[in-house]
Amino acid sequence: MINRRLFIKAGALGASALSVVGLASARNEKSRSNARTNKPIVIATWDFGVAANQAAWTVLASGGRALDAVETGVRVPEADLANPTVGKGGYPDRDGHVTLDACIMDDKGNCGSVAALEHIAHPISVARLVMEKTPHVMLVGEGALQFALANGFEQEKLLTPESEAAWKAWLKKGKYEPVINIENKSFTSDRLPGNRYNHDTIGMLALDSSGNLSGACTTSGMAFKMRGRVGDSPIIGAGLYVDNEVGGATATGVGEEVIRTVGSFLVVELMRQGMSPREACREAVVRIIKKKPETAKKIQVGFLALNKQGEYGAFSLQKGFSYAVCDAKQQDLLMDGESVY
Ligand code: ASP
Fold first, then answer.
1. In the structure, which protein residues have their CB atom closer than 6 angstroms to any atom of ligand 1?
2. Catalytic residue at 58?
3. How many helices and strands (H and E) does the chain possess?
4. CA–centroid distance, residue 329 to ligand 1 (Å)
5. 0.85 surpassed by pTM
6. pLDDT digits (tens, 9 = 90+) for 135-169
C-alpha cells in the first residue's frame, strides 16, 4: 500500500493547477502509463528533494535541459548547512574529514564523477566538469581537489561546528552504526549530536520538455565511515544510471549493498525489459534481500526511478523512504515509497 503526503506551496512555484493526489496512487500510476509522456518532470530522494526540485523546476519550466536542472537542483541540499548528509553540512569520516561523493549523467550517456573530494562545497559541479572537460569519468581524492581548484572552485573548510560536535560525541563510543531513515528524523528541529543522522543522499532524475533524461546524485556518504570509504553515490550504475532510451534510476541507503547489486543499472535494465519504475525498483530491493537476507533487515536502501514516458516509482527495504515529485500538475508533492518490511 502506498501512503502519500503532500506539501503544496503553489505560490513558490506559480503552479496554475495543483491537484491533490490521494491514496489511490497505484491506480493513478497505472492510468498515467497509458497517457502520453508526462514532461517536464523532476523527482528526487527524501524530504529535502522538495526544495531541490523547486530549483530544478525553474530550469525545466523555462524549457531548459534536464542536465542543467539536476545540477541546479542538487546544489540546494549541497549548500544547506542544516543538512548533515549532503554537501557542506555533511558529517565527517571517523577521522574528522568531510569527504564528498557525487556523479552526474546526461541523455547522451556522458557521465562524470568525483569521490572522496574534500574542501569543495559543490561536488556535483566538479563531477559535471569531469564529464565535460576531461577524457575520464571519475576523479578521486587529491586529484579531484586539484582539478576543482584548477577550474576555479573555492577551497573551503567544510566541517561545520555542528558536524564537529556530532563527530566528537560519536568518538566517545566510536561505533560505526548506520541509522535507518535518518533524514526523516527531522534533523533541523531535533538535531542531536552523535550517531543519529548518519546517512542519506540526494538523487535526482529529470525529463525535460524535449524528452531527454539526466540524473545527479550527491552525498557526504556514511557518517563516521573509514577514511577513504566510497559508497554507491558516485559510482555510475550503482548510485545513478540514465539511459535516454529507457529511463533513469538513483539509489540511497547503505551504499555497499547498492554496489554489490549494481542497483541503478539493474533498475534501468529491468525497465528496458518492460517493468514499470515501481516494479523495477522493487525487484532491485529484492535482489539485495536475496544476496544478504540478514543484513537487509537492519539497513535501509531505497531506489527511485523515472522512465522515458515520465512515469515514476520508488521502493525501499524499510518503511519511511520519502521522495519528492514536481511536474506541471503536481508541485512539491512528497510521497512515501513502498517498502518490503
Ligand atoms: N548511499 C550513500 C552512501 O552509501 C548514503 C545514503 O544514501 O544514505 O554513501
1. 199-201, 219, 221-222, 231-233, 252-255
2. no
3. 11, 14
4. 31
5. yes
6. 999 999 999 999 999 999 999 999 999 999 999 99
Runs of H (alpha helix) within the chain: 10-13, 25-34, 49-61, 66-79, 123-133, 141-150, 161-173, 255-260, 263-272, 277-291, 293-298
* Protein residue closest via CA to atom 9 of ligand 1: 221
Give the span between the Cα atoms of 91 and 163, in whole angstroms: 5
pLDDT at 199 over 90: no
Choose the residue to mutate in 98, 197, 254 for probing ligand 1, maximizing ligand atoms within 8 Å of C-beta.
254
From the candidates 72, 201, 218, 219, give the one annotated as an active-site residue. 201
Angle at Cα 324 formed by Cα 178 and Cα 244, nearest 5°?
100
Ligand 1 centre to CA of 64 (Å) is: 29
Cβ neighbours, 10 Å, residue 162: 17
The per-residue pLDDT for range 17-61, each reduced to its tens digit, is 333 333 334 434 444 444 589 999 999 999 999 999 999 999 999
CA-based end-to-end distance of the chain: 12
**Total Cβ atoms within 10 A of residue 190:** 9
For 214-257, how does the pLDDT look when each residue is reduced to its tens digit (9 = 90+)? 999 999 999 999 999 999 999 999 999 999 999 999 999 999 99
Mutational pocket test of ligand 1: of 85, 232, 256, 323, the residue with most ligand atoms within 8 Å of the beta carbon: 232
Alpha carbon distance 146, 338 (integer Å): 42
* Per-residue cell: 316: 525501499
> Hey, what amino acid is at 17?
A
